[in-house]
Design goal:
The protein is mostly helical and about 400 residues long. The protein is built from 17 helices and two strands. Helix 1 packs antiparallel against helix 14, helix 6 runs antiparallel to helix 7 and helix 6 crosses helix 14.
């Protein structure tokens, strides 16, 4: 007799068929990778690898996509995804601002991702926004969908890496353009004022999405109820809000372990640079790679790069989550127009992320919870790019999701 019994008035819960092979591979690689990193680098690096895997599980099980959330709001006025992002940011600033103001967390020196706001951010974030819709994902979205078995997103990721390297060659030009000095609201306004101001803006954006959604649909549009699973927390899907809170907490864990917030795309530039160097390109002579942390990262093994380690963890965590959900099934036939969009979108994502000092994670999420003005500028410009990108999707045979009207 089954130990799972349906509650009165509810449909019976069903067992989820998992994909055992990819699940076993993902779990083994996470475990073995953590052991290796603990011995070869440090226990902190191993912990960050595991945090990356947990981020991958969260992103996949909550289907926490920045790209699709913005697209359905732009095209159809549905704002649940945007509201979840505001919850994520609200939890984030409440965790981050006091720690960043103190300068230490559990005895570890911490600093935010605070970058200049100016021409390069405006141009880069807009390009990134267009690329999000053509490539089919953002930075975190590309990684977790690759881990989930999306073959198209592998193409986007390759374009992402190539675009990132090209941008590093052009960075001296873009950094010479007009821009403000890095500005932290936490340091400029103080923790209390900065916190209240940010929370008010998040609430205002959430309220605006509610107003627009009700005006468009007459009500808040509810997503179809997922099928009842034996263990929805293990197999997914998770509520968006649960995903939002988990991402904020895991970003805070990254701050505690790495001394700075979560980032994604600097690793793509590093992978591409190392690949180009292996092919004989004199990458080390490029200004971007010739001094400071970038030069150190280029000469060091990838296992020492925090972002690389976490990115690989995200892919494997998402792979495990997809296997648990029984949805790890790569599709190898991709329409040519979709491949073209993936290549173009990936190049734009990589190029734009470098110009804008980050992506939807490093510039938007981690930038805003760091109190950086450039994070807000990134949001405005990337959203504008998403508007154009959403309009361009049908040209490449890509879907723009809308709620179907009924006779009711």
């Amino acid at each position: 007799m089954s130990s799972i019994s349906p509650t009165a008035g509810q449909p019976p819960r069903r067992l989820v068929p998992i994909n055992p092979k990819p699940l076993t591979i993902a779990v083994l690689l996470v475990a073995l990778g953590a052991v290796y990193l603990a011995q070869a680098v440090s226990a902190r690096q191993a912990a960050l690898y595991v945090v990356g895997a947990l981020l991958g599980v969260t992103l996949y099980h909550a289907a926490f996509g920045f790209t699709s959330a913005w697209r359905v709001f732009i095209a159809d006025g549905r704002g649940a995804g945007l509201r979840a992002q505001m919850v994520m940011l609200a939890v984030g600033v409440m965790l981050f601002f006091p720690a960043l103001s103190a300068g230490t967390l559990f005895g570890q020196p911490v600093t935010g991702l605070v970058s200049p706001a100016g021409t390069s951010v405006i141009v880069g974030a807009f390009i990134f926004g267009v690329g999000m819709q053509l490539g089919g994902g953002c930075a975190s979205g590309t990684l977790y969908t690759v881990g989930g078995g999306s073959t198209r997103m592998v193409i986007t990721l390759i374009g992402f890496i190539v675009g990132s390297v090209i941008a590093t060659a052009h960075m001296p030009f873009w950094t010479s353009m007009p821009q403000l000095a890095p500005l932290s609201l936490v340091k400029t306004l103080g923790v209390g004022t900065a916190l209240v101001l940010n929370l008010l803006v998040f609430a205002g954006i959430a309220a605006l999405t509610v107003m627009i959604e009700k005006r468009r649909h007459g009500r808040l549009v509810n997503e179809p109820a997922p099928p009842a699973h034996a263990s929805p927390w293990l197999h997914g899907p998770w509520p968006l809000i649960a995903g939002a809170v988990a991402l904020a907490v895991l970003n805070f864990a990254t701050l505690a372990l790495a001394g700075r917030p979560w980032g994604v795309t600097s690793a793509f530039a590093l992978w591409g640079a190392k690949g180009a160097a292996a092919l004989g390109v004199d990458i080390a002579s490029w200004k971007y790679w010739s001094a400071g942390p970038n030069a150190a990262a280029l000469s060091a093994p990838l296992s020492f790069d925090v972002t690389t380690v976490m990115d690989i963890g995200i892919v494997l965590g998402a792979m495990a989550a997809a296997a648990l959900a029984g949805r790890h099934a790569p599709v190898w036939r991709i329409p040519m127009r979709s491949i073209v969009a993936a290549v173009v979108g990936g190049l734009m994502l990589g190029y734009g992320a470098r110009l804008a000092y980050g992506c939807n994670i490093g510039a938007y999420f981690s930038g805003i919870v760091s109190g950086s003005i450039h994070g807000w500028l990134w949001l405005v410009c990337a959203f504008a790019g998403n508007v154009l990108g959403t309009r361009l999707r049908p040209l490449f045979g890509l879907e723009v999701e809308r709620v179907q009207n009924t006779g009711c």
